[in-house]
């Protein structure tokens, strides 16, 4: 028998309305493919929408067992609200890591190659989830399957900084993810 989350997620895929997709995914939580990887009582710490200019790009949700602590495992779930090519995701990721963590620039080329092998092009309602394992790296998932991992503690820290560093480009999203303010 399929779990109820399968049917809820299927309903999301049928609907192409970003607002209904955002609400449904928030009510589902992390997919089993992620929670089966690291058994814990995952709870959503916060969520918000990342916009660039007038475009809503994705809804981000931060999950952690019990409460968010960057020294413990946590997950960042991105629900895409438009089509974006993997190359654009990786280029933007590397640009932000270089801006936030210039000392990590020695690894940018290697990380870029690894991410290009892992990350797919995304379209409306696709989910990419990063499971951050401090002092280890990041495991990547779609809503249905593991995609690959970058097992580097430096990468995990630099990648998380894109959303959680005090110097992130979206202070509003950071605050929403950390539960510091209501959306």
Automatic annotation (TrEMBL):
What keywords does the record list, in alphabetical order?
A: Isomerase
The record places domain Chalcone isomerase at 46-179
According to its UniProt record, what is one Pfam family this protein matches? Chalcone_3
Q: Which domain of life is it from?
A: Bacteria
InterPro entries found in the cross-reference section: Chalcone_isomerase
**Molecular function in Gene Ontology:** isomerase activity
Q: What is this protein called?
A: Chalcone isomerase-like protein
